Amino acid sequence: MSDARLESLRALLPELRLLVEPADLEHYGRDWTRRWTPAPMAVALPASVEDVQAIVCWANAKGVGIVPSGGRTGLSGGAVAANGELVLSLERMHKVLAFDAVDRTLTVQAGIPLQRVQETAREHGLQYPVDFASRGSCSIGGNIATNAGGIRVVRYGNTREWVAGVKLVTGSGELMELGRGLVKDSSGYDLRHLAIASEGTLGIIVEATLKLTDPPSPSNVMLLALPSFEALMQVFAAFRARLQLQAFEFLTDVALKHVLAHGEPPPFEQAHPYYVVTEFASDEASEAEVLAAFGQCLEQGLVSDGVISASDAQAAQLWRLREAITESLARYVPYKNDVSVRISAMPAFLAETQALLGREYPQLEVVWFGHIGDGNLHINILKPDAMAQDAFVADCERVTKLLAQVLEAHGGSISAEHGIGLVKKPYLSCTRSAAEIAAMRGIKAALDPNGIMNPGKLFDA
């Protein structure tokens, strides 16, 4: 049956690149979660918006689910095709379409990598400020579909703030132009923001118009060593009060241990239990302020040591200590939690969560790191070699239910920046009310009446 359906797709679009080899199905059928066995029927790589519309119309007629695919760097199973779906990869749609110097916008196809967007903005003397370690492989369409955050949210906000417009092919095959780059538009519902963070469940983002801004002012990077977990938010408050922070990231000694084993040089002669990487605007005034903030924290026993970058190369080296964490943990295929709370709720949440994980994971290695400046934590649990995968996942899901209850009590979210996908679907009700979920289902039914778009993700049909 699959062959007959694919033959009809080939007949409809003779120039369409269609992959069916097992290695391709495995490669395109999964994301970084590695928890599901990929089993797509095929992988379609369209070259135009018209191709995408034709594929969606075909899928409706044939009753085929579509899994949109960007760089597949997500951590929630949002790009997994495990049930015979058609993977629709946007990687061939990677062009820069237009630059507008007056509006300071860049219009691109959805498959373009984030790093190329950043480089193109710099060529025009501007910047696209959203940034994260996977910049070379993640795609703009995927960034928008998950409202990706990254390492500079404390200064620039999430992807949502930088999207002036999108073109969306809905689940019924219609092409909608949402936002159109307008600064002001109060003509009804803003469907652009529905497309953002929709995880491919409403349609396929095929183009985006992105806002650009002034190039960043010179900055410095500082690595701080902290003696205790409790000092974390006090150090953040001290530095935020004196400096224009671009980023404020934290990691534990366990996280640094894995990064150093991966090849990075140790930053201090002595090991410390907690670390912060912070970046801030650099000028004569800020140099005095950072020394004052560091001196204040040192005097109060909130920091134990610190090093400030003296060159761009040293700044990049300090950032590698934070950005290399995910890469250094990849071989363990960790179970990941990506959670957020309001910054004001962070101290109480941190204390309660640290106690919970210490109690529930006595035999497992837990790696903490995250964007502490915007209330986002990444919690990675590493599977012991002797533990069966099924038993490991079951134990982690048991603890995640407890973590979700803590998040609900503190008004937090089970997904800060990677979406709900398959991994976090059971915990959506801890973040969204029954009325909200019902409204979300209604929106999906309106834009994807046959339920073909990324089926089974976010919530069940």
UniProtKB/TrEMBL annotation:
Q: Which GO terms describe its molecular function?
A: FAD binding; oxidoreductase activity
Q: Which UniProt keywords apply?
A: FAD, Flavoprotein, Oxidoreductase
Query: Which branch of life, at top level?
Result: Bacteria
A Pfam family this protein belongs to? FAD_binding_4
Coiled coil (residue ranges): none
InterPro entries recorded: FAD-bd_oxidored_4_C (IPR004113), FAD-bd_PCMH (IPR016166), FAD-bd_PCMH-like_sf (IPR036318), FAD-bd_PCMH_sub2 (IPR016169), FAD-linked_Oxase-like_C (IPR016164), FAD-oxidored/transferase_4 (IPR051264), Oxid_FAD_bind_N (IPR006094), Vanillyl_alc_oxidase_C-sub2 (IPR016171)
Q: Where are the transmembrane segments?
A: none
Question: Which one GO biological process term can you cite for this protein?
Answer: respiratory electron transport chain
Q: Which cofactor does it need?
A: FAD
**Residue ranges of domain FAD-binding PCMH-type in the record:** 36-215
Q: Which family does it belong to?
A: Belongs to the FAD-binding oxidoreductase/transferase type 4 family.
- State the protein's name: FAD-binding oxidoreductase
Organism name: Thermomonas fusca
